[in-house]
Specification:
Helix content: 40-55%
Distance between the termini: 33 Å
Largest sheet: 3 strands, parallel
Shape: globular
Radius of gyration: 16 Å
Number of helices: 4
Strand content: 5-15%
Number of domains: 1
Oligomer: single chain
Length: 100
């Protein structure tokens, strides 16, 4: 999505990505992004949690207004509320079960 954001920005439209993959976002360096430490596929939080979804959206929009340099990545302070496995965790478990 970071590459798409750059093309959109070239057309004069400001973008902000909401990311659940900080390492990938750092590599691609989209123009502006916020990171939430949530499971992949849940960048705005849990289903039906309208208050959190709205808060994350507003924080992303504030970044669109306030960012003064390209490539800014802001870590948002939200907590998923319970442990979850990352893709790397799942890969390690799979490798372990295969004896790798």
């Amino acid at each position: 999505m970071g590459l798409v954001a750059r093309v959109v920005e070239e057309a004069g439209i400001a973008t902000v990505l909401v990311s659940t993959g900080r390492d990938l976002t750092q590599q691609v360096l989209p123009p502006r992004s916020v990171f939430v430490n949530f499971p992949m596929g849940n960048p705005f939080g849990r289903p039906e949690d309208k208050a959190m979804q709205r808060e994350i959206l507003l924080e992303a929009l504030r970044l669109a207004e306030s960012a003064v340099e390209p490539g800014v990545l802001v870590d948002l302070p939200h907590d998923w509320g319970e442990d979850f496995l990352t893709i790397m965790d799942l890969k390690a478990e799979l490798d372990s079960s295969k004896g790798i």
